[in-house]
Design goal:
heterodimer, A: alpha+beta, 9 helices, elongated
Chain lengths: 484, 208
């Protein structure tokens, strides 16, 4: 009986295959994928990134990790992991194959252990910048030898009791070193090539919340002594930095109460230039948040990374999600989540990108999860890259494919609408733009379409109007004459 | 009563001659309650029309989320509040207008406002973002309504100008108080309902 059934099933499958019918195939994610509509409500979307593997230290062959705090992927696809609890740096390739470890380095002729490295940066020539938090220094290591150290700078900008506790480090295209120090609210510390202090860079501003306003009111009433006894209001410190290839410094901020500008793109003057449509500050994370007993769980970004196509990836510690946005602040994809399954995290601390792969480090799970884009995710990214590059027609074809997979994606409607507007097919442009929420582009196409319509029907309309007026006049005159 | 096109019973005549018409409504018994109700119904329909049919460029509403009851409340509640508040203030300030007169005259005064809004909706469908004429139509209609209302109330209550300004300010204040009272009663009622429902459920559980 059983054999018979199996044979029947095989025959059935064979028949389907012979007829060329596709078998229903599906993949289930361990997390929800969504995008946002015009009114900031979440709508379901196909997954853009799917986890392919999650490996811990034992599986990689490096021995168990112990609270790793950061990792860095260099341009050749070598992954440097700061295994903080084990006082070592672990090297892997892009497939997470074990390459080796660095446990000690030569400094002034003697071997010193790599204790408490919380932040890493690796330059294109293989120079490792390791931030030793409790030692209060950043080591610049070339071929296992410490070439120079960045220590607490002597400057009149810096107070005597300032504790230099570097947690993250980044190096820009000119070789300037940006250091994030724990408990420093004045921004990043910027060092020159030779390790000399240049100044503070791009501090966060104080968020204007109700508490702050209340405090401000009190302070204007109190005496100086009373004022000194009050808690001072400080801006939130950055949580991580990433230096992009084109010379910008991206920063992430943890624990903001106003969901705005959690990810900043700082220009060389230290000003944020990451804004969305209409110069609005970008809320990098979720538009909808969960409320528990009246307290919103706002997104809290712990790391940021920009890939070679200028897509920005930010890891939200609150929801365990990775948000991907483009340079205009449009949401490209959301993936990941909280949990213990593949593709979810308990404490994500760092994100890296190599090619199209996304690597996420989990501090408590002690593992690295690798995500790869799905067909849909790759299409969305390609369409945005093509459009930004000015290849409107090609972008339109890709947006078409995106829409057939996700009819809820407003960015696709926007892209297609703009493509049609470019081709002066305004009826189609208006149809697509009316689903995009981009009223400015819609208005421009509408105006041009109106001009076309007026040119087309205007003369006929005016002609009929004149004929009608003349006819009524004549009838009136005839009637009056008949009365007389 | 026979409908006279040139009397204050005609709302279009009323809004063009607010001094005479408000006097006629108060002291000659002109003005029709039926017409005022029709105007309110049109006002309600206009708010829906405005929400749903304003051109896409100017319309930021989610069209699929229409709540007719909410629209009804936003259209009619301010009117009711204004009429009641003005009547209360008139009693305190020795105004001579009666509830019926205030109701009818206020409803009549909504006509330019409604027409302005309808015009704005129609215009918004042929204008682009940089052309603000739809707003102008709205402001013009609303302005006409407010001026007519102000003049009418002055005549109706036999106030002088300053007293009428004071009365209008008081009316707005009383409207807020009424709104607060309504919300208070609403929240108390829902609490009371919750309490009764809990007691009943408890009793039912004990009985069974």
């Amino acid at each position: 009986m059983k054999k018979h059934q199996i044979r029947g099933l095989c025959a059935g499958l064979g028949l389907l295959a012979a007829l060329g019918l596709p078998l229903p195939a599906y993949a289930q994610s361990n997390f929800n994928s969504y995008s946002y509509d015009e009114w900031d409500g979440s709508v379901a979307a196909p997954p853009s990134y799917q986890p392919t593997m999650a490996l811990n230290g034992l599986q990689i062959g490096a021995g168990a990790f112990n609270v790793p705090q950061d990792f860095f992927m260099d341009e050749n696809g070598t992954l440097y992991l700061a295994d903080t609890g084990n006082n070592r740096i672990v090297l892997m390739d892009e497939e997470l194959n074990f390459l080796g470890t660095i446990e000690t380095v030569l400094m002034n002729g003697e071997e010193i252990p790599l204790t408490d490295v919380e932040g890493l940066y690796v330059a294109a020539d293989g120079t490792i910048y390791a931030a030793q938090t409790s030692e209060g220094r950043v080591l610049v290591i070339r071929d296992g030898v410490v070439e120079e150290t960045v220590v607490k700078p002597v400057s009149n900008l810096i107070a005597e009791d300032f504790v230099f506790a570097p947690t993250k480090v980044g190096v820009d295209m000119y070789g300037r070193i940006y250091v994030l120090s724990r408990g420093c609210y004045s921004g990043l510390l910027q060092f020159d090539l030779d390790g000399s202090f240049m100044g503070f860079f791009g501090a966060n501003k104080v968020e204007v919340t109700a508490d702050v306003l209340f405090n401000y009111m009190w302070k204007s009433l109190l005496s100086d002594e009373q004022r000194a006894a009050m808690t001072s209001i400080l801006p939130i410190e950055y949580s991580n930095i990433d230096c992009s290839k084109d010379g910008f410094v991206y920063t992430s901020t943890v624990g903001t109460q106003l969901p705005k500008s959690q990810i900043k793109k700082l220009n060389p003057q230290g000003n944020n230039i990451y804004f969305g449509v209409g110069n609005a500050e970008v809320n990098f994370g979720d538009e909808e948040f969960a409320y528990t007993r009246g307290n919103a769980s706002y997104p809290s970004f712990i790391d940021v990374k920009v890939n070679s196509e200028d897509f920005i990836f930010g890891v939200d510690l609150t929801s365990g999600r990775i948000f991907e946005r483009d340079q205009e602040g449009n949401l490209v994809s959301v993936f990941g989540g909280m949990g213990s399954q593949l593709g979810t995290f308990t404490t994500p601390v760092a994100v890296e990108v190599y090619g199209h792969k996304v690597y996420v480090l989990d501090r408590l799970k002690n593992n690295i999860t690798v995500f790869e884009p799905t067909e849909y995710g790759a299409l969305v990214e390609r369409a945005i890259v093509l459009y930004d590059g000015g290849f409107y027609e090609e972008a339109g074809q890709v947006w078409e494919q995106v829409l057939s997979r996700n009819a809820n994606y407003t960015l696709a409607y926007n892209g297609l609408g703009k493509v049609y507007a470019q081709e002066e097919e305004y009826t189609d442009a208006l149809d697509y733009l009316s689903h995009s929420g981009d009223r400015y582009s819609y208005s421009r196409s509408f105006g041009k379409n109106r001009l076309v319509l007026v040119r087309q029907y205007g003369p006929a309309f005016v002609g009929i109007l004149i004929v009608l007026i003349v006819a009524f006049r004549l009838i009136g005159r005839l009637k009056r004459r008949a009365k007389q | 009563m026979k409908f006279d096109r040139k009397s204050a019973t005609n709302p279009f005549h009323t809004v063009r001659h607010p001094f005479d018409a408000s006097y006629d409504i108060r002291f000659k018994g002109q003005g029709s309650a039926a017409i005022s109700v029709i105007i309110l119904a049109v006002l309600f329909l206009t708010t829906i029309f405005q929400r749903q049919n304003t051109g896409y460029i100017f319309n930021y509403n989610k069209l699929s989320d229409l709540n007719v009851f909410m629209q009804f409340a936003t259209a009619i509640l301010p009117f009711l509040l204004f009429v009641i508040a003005n009547w209360i203030v008139a009693m305190l300030l020795n105004g001579t207008g009666r509830m019926r007169d205030i109701w009818i005259y206020t409803a009549y005064c909504l006509v330019p406002f409604i027409l302005g809004n309808i015009g704005a909706v129609l215009l918004s469908n042929i204008l682009v973002m940089e052309e603000p004429f739809a707003n102008y139509a709205q402001v013009f209609g609303a302005g006409w309504s407010l001026v007519a209302l102000f003049i009418g109330l002055m005549v109706m209550h036999e106030y002088n100008f300053v007293r009428n300004v004071f009365s209008c300010a008081c009316t707005v204040f009383v409207m807020f108080i009424l709104l607060f009272a309504i919300m208070l009663v609403g929240s108390l009622a829902s609490d009371f309902y919750g309490f009764v429902a809990t007691v009943v459920r408890e009793i039912l559980l004990r009985v069974s």
